[in-house]
């Protein structure tokens, strides 16, 4: 069981799609990020004529939350208009979500609000985490690197 309203979070992620700026892909994505204290930040994809600068909905929500001082999260819901596939975060977003822990929930949904739920660490197994850098720094201090 979950300690938050899964359907409400998924619904918010679908509502966030309405703000997607996606004139190039025409693929609107929405995200709703639930912080540990219960605040919800939404995000949408924000594309750019310089394609590599496009920002995903998940990272938009994450940046909004972190820039407001949040670093602990319970869940993020992700929404697209795909009816045959759950909305899975891209690799870059998986890495950015993992930065804030491997044990919080990612809710990948469809427009009918059905969803698949995995932990951030399950979405990016063997990911590069802050712990890896700390281990490296410890090695430098001990003269091992
Ligand atoms: Zn992404």
Description:
The structure is a single chain. This protein is of the alpha+beta class and 145 residues long. The chain contains five helices and five strands; from the N terminus they run H-E-E-H-E-H-E-E-H-H. A five-stranded mixed β-sheet has the order 2-1-3-4-5. Strand 4 and strand 5 form a beta hairpin. The mean pLDDT is 95. Bound molecules: zinc ion. The site of zinc ion has 6 residues, from helix 3. Its EC number is 3.5.4.5.
Summary tags:
alpha+beta, 5 helices, binds zinc ion, 19% strand, Cytidine Deaminase, domain 2
Ligands, deduplicated: zinc ion
Radius of gyration, whole Å: 16 Å
Lateral strand order in the biggest sheet = 2-1-3-4-5
Strand content: 15-25%
In CATH, the topology is named Cytidine Deaminase, domain 2
What's the layout of helices and strands?
Elements lengths: L5 H11 L13 E6 L4 E5 L12 H11 L5 E7 L11 H8 L6 E5 L5 E5 H4 L6 H12 L4
Parallel strand pairs: 3-4
Antiparallel strand pairs: 1-2, 1-3, 4-5
EC number: 3.5.4.5
Cofactor: Zn(2+)
GO molecular function: cytidine deaminase activity; identical protein binding; zinc ion binding
């Amino acid at each position: 069981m979950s300690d938050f309203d899964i359907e409400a979070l998924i619904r918010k992620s679908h509502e966030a799609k309405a703000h997607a700026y996606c004139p190039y892909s025409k693929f609107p994505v929405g995200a709703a990020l639930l912080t540990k204290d219960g605040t919800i930040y939404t995000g949408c994809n924000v594309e750019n004529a310089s394609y590599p600068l496009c920002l995903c909905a998940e990272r938009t929500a994450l940046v909004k939350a972190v820039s407001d001082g949040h670093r602990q999260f319970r869940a993020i819901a992700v929404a697209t208009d795909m009816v045959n596939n759950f909305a899975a975060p891209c690799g870059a977003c998986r890495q950015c979500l993992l930065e804030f822990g491997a044990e919080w929930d990612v809710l990948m949904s469809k427009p009918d609000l059905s969803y698949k739920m995995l932990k951030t660490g399950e979405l990016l197994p063997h990911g590069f985490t802050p712990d890896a850098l700390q281990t490296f720094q410890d090695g430098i201090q001990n003269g091992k690197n």
